[in-house]
Design goal:
- By secondary structure, the protein is mainly alpha-helical.
- The chain is built from 5 helices and no strands.
- The longest helix has 12 residues, at about 5-15.
- The chain starts with a helix and ends in a 30-residue tail after the last helix.
């Protein structure tokens, strides 16, 4: 679906929730709100991010970083841990002799 849906799937996996209703109960919100967030009709609020932080122990900066990405491909699916970023250095046309 979208980034919010992927994010909620990640959090659900982290909290070992089997469905949106158990995720909603863990985060002290309603299942319809989780559905609205999954379909991006409702943004994930700062209050909910704080609840996710309190429940999972993940830093808020990392949670916001996940939501800022277009996809969660930096997070490895099998372990759901942050993968090391790859540094790409562009080639330059600098002559060897100056």
């Amino acid at each position: 679906m979208g980034i919010q849906s992927d994010f909620l799937d990640f959090i659900s996996e982290k909290l070992d929730c089997k469905n949106s209703a158990t995720l909603a109960a863990s985060l002290r919100t309603s299942a319809p709100n989780i559905s609205r967030m999954r379909h991006e009709k409702l943004p994930i609020s700062d209050v909910l991010l704080i609840r996710i932080h309190e429940t999972t122990g993940l830093p808020i900066r990392e949670l916001k970083g996940m939501l800022d990405r277009r996809c969660l491909s930096a997070y490895c699916p099998p372990t759901l841990e942050l993968c090391a970023p790859t540094l790409v250095i562009p080639e330059t046309n600098i002559p060897d002799e100056l």
